[in-house]
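My main concern about presentation is that the manuscript never shows what a single data entry looks like. For the editor and my fellow referees, an illustration may be useful. For illustration, here is how one protein appears when written out as sequence plus structure tokens:

***
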Amino acid sequence: MYTSKTSIDTRLTEGYQPDPAWRGRLTAGIVTVLLLYPMLLASEFQPWILLDAQSLHATWNFLSSFVPPAHSREFLMLMLGATWQTVAIATAGLALALLAATPLSLLACTRFSVSRMESGKLRTASAIIRQIARWILVALRSVPELVWALLLVRIVGLGPTAGVLAIAMTYSGMLGKVYAEILESSESYTTQVLLRNGSSRLAALFYGALPESASELISYTTYRWECAIRGSVVMGFVGAGGIGQRMDESMKMLAGDEVSTMLIIFVLLVACADMVSGFLRKSLG
């Protein structure tokens, strides 16, 4: 049956209902713009500088030196050693962070408190200890690893030791906080049964909370390992060793071909870390 275009338009108009949330979305958009604009001004964000003729000329000169990447045997062997050192810094720093984060997360987590299970509230001494543990975690993760590296380089000297300690200090605070939150949100029945029957906190952790939270804990830990690899590269710019220190030297000499090779290695390094993380998650899944 033939239906005129006018009748179709009329029915579409009559059936049209305005979005009831449009006022809220418009208000949220306006508030966001009003909040972001002064922040952009305070940060002196001026992206149009990149389109300046002088900036474009300098960018072209620098990027054109990236091709071809440096590929001499001597340089690649040097990069192999620096890359291995970067991975070693990240892994050793994360291992030390785990040693500190595990007991701190247990102290900060109320799930393993017998007094709370029995009376519904923490004893005064337990509450004080947990608050102190949380303050320590806050203090450790509040200072970025780059700042720790700057301080430690002046204490222990140039080299990877400063990078390892910097990652250990910052990441112990990050890992401890997230571990405590993951354990708090895990199923509590098995953990409570173990604690009420005289089990230690470590036993309750290994046999009660970990089976429930292992996949999430390992996923976050491997993500932090990937972040530690990136962080160890950045800390190399302040003298903490690894591929970052070599990149800083090449940047100062305007050796674009060497920088290009290091960037390629860095991308491959992070991609390999992501593959390891994915493999571990699938194995636990």
Q: What stands out?
A: The chain has one domain: 73-284. Residues 73-284 form a domain with the MetI-like fold fold (CATH 1.10.3720.10). Residues 73-108 form the longest helix (36 residues).
